[in-house]
Amino acid sequence: MPSDDSFLRRVVAVLTAFRADDDGLGAAELARRSGLPKSTAHRIALDLVEAGLLERQGPRVRLGLRLFEIGQRVPRQRVLRDAAVPYMSDLREATRQTVHLAVLEGAEVVYVEILGSPGGPPMPSKVGGRLPAHVTGVGKAILAFSPPEVVQTVVDAGLVRATGRSVAAPGLLARELERIRAEGVAYDREESGNGIVCAASPVLGADGEAIGALSVSGWSTGMRLAAVAPAVHTAALTLSRTLGEAPR
């Protein structure tokens, strides 16, 4: 009989096997991604279906509505998103581009909200999805205003390239973060996806450290970073002040 801790780790392995763009996983793929034997992954999946955390879709399973409902109760995500949405709407209206809100978790950014724009490029980002922090504008904006140990976590995880333009050297990343601290704006120049650029700015807590970041993204051929950067910076600063004044 596995220990409670061992069983919990297996449950987490099954749940985290799902990616943001998955509509459902079969038993073999679920086992491969979770690193569990097929029979174990299948048994845990059935238990999670019964609990409402997963739901059946023919021979496949997918994340269930109850799991989504639980996720919406996470305080940091809920407070940040609720406060940010009006500013994100204004940004989208002003720029006619896609607007992102993200937070940092480990070496990756997690997208809390995305307001898409008609005619915009297909983004590698999705709500609830993750990308390596060092290849994104929001990730670099957050890292520039984070403690050194947080940045080191990202470096230690490996600066893997998403495109040929991604920053992959610790020294180059350090210099870029220094520039971002001075200017308050980070850029993604086709580093997370070919043909996609973005300008991002950190959302700061009362201690001056980043709790998230806003960005505006669009086609490299249709969006001038210098034109949208001031709007992103202003929105992030105003959101930071709003959160600082809001009851905790």
From TrEMBL:
Residues 5-65 form the HTH iclR-type domain. InterPro entries: GAF-like_dom_sf, HTH_MetabolicPath_Reg, Tscrpt_reg_IclR_C, Tscrpt_reg_IclR_N, WH-like_DNA-bd_sf, WH_DNA-bd_sf. PROSITE patterns: HTH_ICLR, ICLR_ED. The keyword Transcription regulation applies. Keywords: DNA-binding, Transcription, Transcription regulation. It comes from Actinomadura sediminis. This is IclR family transcriptional regulator. Residues 66-245 form the IclR-ED domain.
